[in-house]
Write a structure and sequence with these properties.
This protein has about 220 residues and is mainly beta. It is built from three helices and twelve strands, in the order E-E-E-E-E-E-E-E-E-E-E-E-H-H-H.
């Protein structure tokens, strides 16, 4: 995980407390796979916004990053959130994590990511720096003696999305990153030379995207 503060705009909609319940969520479907399908195992306070601007606030959430379900807790039971979801924010409130993490879906499909994939928004603007957190399965390293035993593994990739277009996977290469900057390539190249930004680091890529958004 990388420690940027996500920039986001909260929706000025009225909070909704009913009509959100989807199917009850069951983890037993993964009982034969080691590890967890969730991005974070703990429940965190959060807020959900639909494509219509309705808000579900003050609930506890988990993101199931294997089959891409957003799950919330109500009266001791976990439910898949249904309907046209747009974004969610979680507020971990624990040391070592950001105060808030903002996730958004609805981008055109790219690689293994679909329109319902929630990307963490690290930098937002005319260019957005996104991080896809996906759980996949691989042969278990903990149970190597058990034939075909599998475990969940976390895969994380950075993407840049320009004006809601399909995200482009980040290559930690100056020429490839500058090529995404459109008619600002010359300005961005001069800025990189002046500021000695390290594009091999996630923080350097975030600085690049944030500066582009000021132009």
């Amino acid at each position: 995980m990388i420690a940027f503060i996500a920039v986001y705009t909260s929706a000025p909609a009225q909070s909704v407390n009913t009509g959100w319940r989807g199917h009850e969520y069951e983890t037993k479907q993964f009982s034969d796979i080691d590890g967890s399908p969730f991005l974070y195992d703990d429940w965190y306070r959060g807020k959900v916004v639909t494509v219509d601007g309705d808000v579900l606030d003050g609930v506890t959430l988990k993101y199931e990053a294997y089959t891409e379900y957003l799950v919330y807790m109500q009266q001791g039971k976990a439910y898949e959130l249904s309907g046209g979801l747009r974004s969610f924010t979680i507020f971990p409130g624990v040391d070592g994590m950001k105060d808030s993490l903002y996730f958004r879906c609805g981008y055109p499909p790219v690689d293994e990511n679909t329109g319902k994939t929630f990307y963490e928004v690290l930098v937002d603007g005319k260019a957005s720096l996104l991080q896809a957190h996906r759980k996949a399965t691989a042969v278990s390293s903990q149970n190597a003696l058990v034939s075909n035993k599998r475990e969940f593994v976390l895969r994380e990739d950075l993407y840049i999305a320009m004006d809601r277009q399909a995200p482009v996977k980040v290559k930690r290469d100056r020429a490839a990153l500058i090529a995404l900057m459109g008619d600002k390539q010359a300005e961005m190249s001069l800025w990189l030379d002046k500021n000695k930004v390290n594009l091999k680091r996630d923080e350097g890529i975030a600085e690049l995207v944030a500066h582009f958004n000021t132009l």
